[in-house]
Design brief:
Layout: E1 4-9, E2 19-23, E3 26-33, E4 36-41, H1 51-54, E5 55-58, E6 61-64, E7 70-72, E8 78-80, E9 89-90, E10 92-95, E11 98-102
Antiparallel strand pairs: 1-11, 2-3, 3-4, 4-9, 5-6, 6-7, 7-8, 10-11
Length: about 100
């Protein structure tokens, strides 16, 4: 059963970097841009490589350095080959200054 899980205070999250988070033996990444936080499963859709280890944010784009796949930080949409599908997006919300994921 899914539920909202608090992952930390928005004010404590750095902007424009990949923030790893684990819950129930699953790995996720968060990306903060201003007051918006997006979350994805921590796997490149190209070859299931951990973006927390091989990824980097460049001008609002998440780049996987393993093979050069690129994704939009807002919605996880694939932007270039070799990726042919988006990242798996996880719903997020802010509640009393806390970032929550629906897991």
């Amino acid at each position: 059963m899914s539920e909202w899980i608090a992952v930390g205070a928005l004010k404590d999250m750095p902007e424009n970097v990949i923030i790893p988070f684990s819950h129930a033996a699953e790995d996720y990444i968060l990306i903060r841009r201003g007051d918006e936080v997006t979350a994805f499963v921590d796997l490149c859709s190209h070859q299931e490589i951990k973006l927390s280890e091989f990824g980097e944010i460049q001008q609002g784009v998440l780049i996987c350095h393993a093979h050069g796949a690129a994704f939009d930080c807002h919605d996880g949409k694939e932007l270039c080959f070799p990726a042919t599908s988006p990242l798996q997006n996880i719903p997020t919300r802010l509640s009393a200054g806390q970032v929550e994921l629906y897991l």
